[in-house]
Amino acid sequence: MRSVKASMSICRGRNLTTALVVAVALIVLAGCASQGSSPPPTATSPNPAAPAATAPPAATIPPATESPVPAPPLTQIGKLKPVIVPVLFGTNRVPLPPVMGAVQGYGTTRGPLAYGLAVVSIPPDRKKGEIPTPPSGLEEYESFKNPMRYFRLLDADQVPESEVAHITARFFAGKPGKRSGLVFVHGYNVAFRAAAFRAAQMSFDMALQSMPVFFSWASKAGTAAYWKDENTALQSVPDFKKFLSTYLRESKVDQVVIVAHSMGARIVSSALVEMIERDPKIAGKLLHLVLAAPDLDAAVFQEQVMPVLVGAKVPMTVYASSNDKALRASVQLHGFTRVGSAGKEIVVGDGLETIDASQIDTDFLGHSYFASSPRLLQDIGALIVEGKSASLRSNLKPRPSGETPRYWQMQRMRP
């Protein structure tokens, strides 16, 4: 039996028909990244005649001895004004210096686990699910020049582990009810800034009252670095375990929803299995686990992950699609079905709600549909915010029809 960790090991030994097939597959797998994921450009301005950009004021966190100051609300939006979304993060990336005064965040080299607060500016004129970013190489200059058009990373301040409690207190100040958090873990070929943008975009577009949080592991953010990212993902499991444990302990949230995309599902599933086996009580904090287009071996998931999570009564939902070209390439590279694949080999089971999203219109690669499709955002929002199971969400139809459903199919929007 393959172990969870073994399933994440590097796949260099796989025999494909030709080197061309590997190259094509890696190009397709580039769809795991969102638009803002290109590596940081050099400090040379693309337009020497343009005035130098000025950095926005740093987002400061009051000392623990001061009274908490409420964080900017997610609904802070006026006519033609950007939306400011603060996002707590953990990362095992090495920090980067600013470029042209613009915040870079963290790079592609793995380092010690760090905690911080990212501040993301979202332009007001865009469709739900969209993350408009400048052309590659012009991120800093254009994003400062066009804050009404592009996403911006205003800050990515690193803070001590002890400040997690203080940041959380600021966010929930004056908000009644249970404290809940939404933790996002990205996949392959994703830069830090792109992960911050996606976490903020999901939280805002779904109008969540949960605290937005993301864990950014040290993806190389490059098309040809798939196998390197696989190895880094394996190395990142202990870091995610520590980050999640710290967040749950220091934030004192009552419950947390984890959304893991693509290769990030390997990190999350491995970490949760180990954490629950060591301390079963942690499952009581997990309101829901959402695996979106998971690039995870189906047999390992069914044989080793599901028994532990289902046994601990962790609610789980998988979003899968037969139109996901990136996962098709992953199947070809590995030789095994992925959990995010739909069709004849769709993964189902007791304690798991599987959603076939194949009928949803997506981009060419169809791999980021979970957060870029307004219909999917609405469905995930109904799951997270309203707590509706698949049987109560009107846009889902049971399959097979008329029987005890094995999975659910999202319906195509009628014209």
Number of helices: 11
The low-pLDDT segments are: 1-24, 30-78
**Beta-strand fraction estimate:** 15-25%
Helix content: 25-40%
Order of helices and strands: HEEHEHEHEHHEHEHEHEHHEE
Radius of gyration: 21 Å
Task: Summarize this entry quickly.
The protein is of the alpha/beta class and 415 residues long. The chain is 29% helix and 20% strand.
Could you explain how this protein is built, in words?
The protein has helices at residues 19-29, 139-145, 163-172, 192-205, 226-235, 237-251, 264-278, 298-311, 325-334, 369-372, 374-384; strands at residues 83-95, 106-122, 152-159, 180-185, 211-216, 255-261, 286-292, 316-320, 352-356, 396-399, 407-410. The radius of gyration is 21 Å and the shape is globular. Helix 1 packs antiparallel against helix 9 (325-334), helix 3 (163-172) packs across helix 6 and helix 6 packs across helix 7. An 11-stranded mixed sheet has the order 3-2-1-5-4-6-7-8-9-11-10. It is an alpha/beta fold and 415 residues long.
Which terms would index this structure?
11 helices; alpha/beta; disordered N terminus; eleven-stranded mixed sheet
List the helices and strands and how they pair.
Blueprint: H1 19-29, E1 83-95, E2 106-122, H2 139-145, E3 152-159, H3 163-172, E4 180-185, H4 192-205, E5 211-216, H5 226-235, H6 237-251, E6 255-261, H7 264-278, E7 286-292, H8 298-311, E8 316-320, H9 325-334, E9 352-356, H10 369-372, H11 374-384, E10 396-399, E11 407-410
Parallel strand pairs: 1-5, 4-5, 4-6, 6-7, 7-8, 8-9, 9-11
Antiparallel strand pairs: 1-2, 2-3, 10-11
Helix pairs in contact: 1-9, 3-6, 6-7, 7-8
